[in-house]
C-alpha cells in the first residue's frame, strides 16, 4: 500500500495528468451541449440490475438504532433515470462505482463511470455522442496491447448478428434458445450446464470481441431481445433491442440503450433477471421500488450510456493496466 510514494506516483503521473485533461475536455463538451452535471447517492437500496455482477453490501445505522441494508451502486443508472422522470432533459455524471469480485488489467473494484442521458432522442444520437467524445482524447491513436484505433475516424456500425456471421460463421438467430446449435455452428466448446446466453458470451470472447474497434471504433448494436436489459425493443424488429456497445482496440468501452419506458415490461424483466441471478449464483438483489415509482410517473422517451472512463484513459495514454491511470488504487 505504497502507491503514494514519490517513485511510484511519478511513474503514473503522465497518465494521471492526461486523465485530468481529458476529464476537463469532456466536461466542457457536455456544457456546450447543454447538459447539467449531477451527483447521485452511492448508497442505494439495490446496487443495480445486472445478472452477472457481484455487489458490495453495507449497513446504514439510523440514529434510533434501526439498521437498513444498503449497497454501493454498480452504476448510477437507476438514480439518473429518476431525475429524467423528474424533468431533467440532459444530464451526465462522473460516478465512482463499485463491482465486487473483479480484478484484471481492465477491471478494478472501484472505478469511474461516465454516464449520460438525453430525453427526446433515439440511441443513434448517443452513437454520434460517442464519436465526438473519442475525438476529445486529442491523440493520433488509441492503443491496447498490439491493437490501434483512430479516435477521429467515423465508427463502424455492426449489428450483433452481422458480427457473429463475419467472425464466427454463425447465423445467430437460427440458434436462439439452443446452446447446442450455437456451439456446433461456431465450433466453440460447450461446457456442461451452459445456457444459450453462456455460449453467446463464450463465442463473443473467443471469436469476436478482440476483432472489434481495430483501426476505427466499432458500435456493436441490435442485441438479441433476451439481452435487452433496460433497453426497449427495436421498432420493426422485435427480435432485437435498441442496445449497443462501443469498442476500441478490442476493448469494450461503453454500453448504451434506447431506454425502456414501459413500467410493466420493466417489472417483468427485473424479476426475470433476479430469478436468473438466483439460479446461477444463489442470491438476488432487492428491487428499487422508487425506480419503479419513477417509471409509473412517466419516463420520457430517452437514450443513455455508461462509459468506462478509466478504460478510455488507458487507451488514450497506452497504459498497460487500469491501476496506471488511477490516482490511488484500492488495496
Report on the structure:
The protein contains nine helices and 15 strands. Strand 12 and strand 13 (237-248) form a beta hairpin. It is 35% helix and 25% strand. The chain has helices at residues 6-32, 77-85, 123-135, 160-168, 179-186, 196-208, 263-281, 289-298, 309-317; strands at 36-37, 43-44, 56-61, 67-72, 90-98, 110-119, 142-144, 147-150, 156-159, 215-216, 218-224, 233-234, 237-248, 251-258, 302-308. Strands 1, 5, 6, 9, 11, 12, 13, 14 and 15 form a nine-stranded mixed β-sheet that branches. Strands 2-4-3 form a three-stranded antiparallel β-sheet, with no helix packed on it. Helix 1 (6-32) crosses helix 9 (309-317). It has one domain (6-155, 217-325): Bira Bifunctional Protein, Domain 2 (BirA Bifunctional Protein, domain 2, 2-Layer Sandwich). By secondary structure, it is of the alpha+beta class.
Summarize the structure.
This protein has nine helices and 15 strands.
Structural class: alpha+beta
CATH topology group: BirA Bifunctional Protein, domain 2
Count of DSSP strands: 15
Mean pLDDT: 95
Assigned CATH architecture: 2-Layer Sandwich
Short key terms for the protein model shown above:
single chain, 331 residues, alpha+beta, BirA Bifunctional Protein, domain 2, three-stranded antiparallel β-sheet
What is the fold's blueprint, element by element?
Blueprint: H1 6-32, E1 36-37, E2 43-44, E3 56-61, E4 67-72, H2 77-85, E5 90-98, E6 110-119, H3 123-135, E7 142-144, E8 147-150, E9 156-159, H4 160-168, H5 179-186, H6 196-208, E10 215-216, E11 218-224, E12 233-234, E13 237-248, E14 251-258, H7 263-281, H8 289-298, E15 302-308, H9 309-317
Parallel strand pairs: 1-5, 8-10, 9-11
Antiparallel strand pairs: 2-4, 3-4, 5-6, 6-15, 7-8, 11-13, 12-13, 13-14, 14-15
